[in-house]
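Whiteboard transcription, Tuesday session. T.W. wrote the structure tokens on the left side:
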């Protein structure tokens, strides 16, 4: 949906999108960027950035190439970005679980070297504090990446602790799916014995068993807004960097309910 938003917006302005995937590999990213620059692209929209400012991206910004990040931010204030509101989204997830009666809410965080992982982790801490929940570091584990198996690996570590957790907020839907795997291994029913909340509302999240309660961010709008800002740069209507956070929305499904079995 992000790519579709970019394509639709730029297509109406008679621009063509060249799409490249770097697999989050820094060497591959440098190679791809060099290839695109050799073809004199007008601008770059990136979804690969890490929090620490990339020297390559900093140099491109200094050289005057328009760059906008989607679903990521960087520590460098000169780089524009369009993201969902990660902190707001996690706050909605925690508030939803608290309203259901949960008091021991775990978090499987994403990698902290990317902005989405850090912002969602900070959002979890803020929401827990605002709800008056105990700040227990044993309730937090970190997945190596936003995928199912790293999520399962991290959640197994949490399940091995005496935490008393009855619910978990996952940093994204694939990590949540890893949580499903671990709960199924232990014959715990998702949504009945243990509640799970994801983040993103990925395709088919409503077809999981049970359907996943998650945080929806406006992916298409993120792409469209990023493309619109790129056009402003290219056409000379904007010169200053901009950071936009779009509202998130809780989508309640069957993976959450009141606390079930006593605890883990």
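and on the right, the sequence the group agreed on:
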């Amino acid at each position: 949906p992000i790519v579709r938003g970019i394509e639709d917006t730029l297509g109406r302005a008679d621009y063509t999108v060249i799409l490249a995937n770097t697999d989050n590999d820094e060497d591959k990213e440098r190679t791809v960027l060099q290839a695109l620059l050799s073809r004199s692209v007008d601008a770059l929209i990136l979804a690969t950035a890490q929090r620490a400012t990339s020297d390559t991206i900093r140099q491109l910004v200094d050289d005057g190439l328009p760059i906008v990040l989607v679903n990521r931010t960087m520590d460098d204030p000169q780089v524009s970005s369009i993201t969902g509101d990660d902190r707001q989204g996690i706050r909605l997830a925690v508030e939803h679980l608290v309203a259901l009666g949960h008091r021991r809410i775990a978090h499987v965080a994403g990698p902290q070297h990317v902005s989405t992982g850090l912002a969602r982790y900070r959002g979890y801490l803020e929401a827990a504090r605002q709800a008056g929940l105990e700040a227990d570091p044993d309730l937090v584990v970190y997945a190596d990446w936003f995928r199912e198996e790293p999520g399962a690996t991290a959640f197994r570590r949490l399940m091995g602790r005496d935490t008393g957790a009855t619910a978990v907020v996952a940093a994204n839907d694939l990590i949540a799916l890893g949580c499903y795997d671990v709960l199924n291994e232990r014959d715990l029913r998702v949504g009945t014995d243990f509640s799970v909340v994801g983040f993103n509302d990925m395709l088919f999240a409503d077809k999981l068993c049970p359907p996943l309660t998650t945080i929806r961010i406006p992916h298409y709008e993120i792409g469209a807004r990023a493309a619109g800002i790129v056009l402003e740069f290219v056409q000379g209507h904007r010169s200053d960097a901009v950071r936009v956070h779009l509202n998130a929305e809780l989508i309640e499904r069957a993976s959450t309910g009141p606390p079930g079995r006593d605890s883990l």
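Someone added at the bottom: The chain has eight helices and ten strands.
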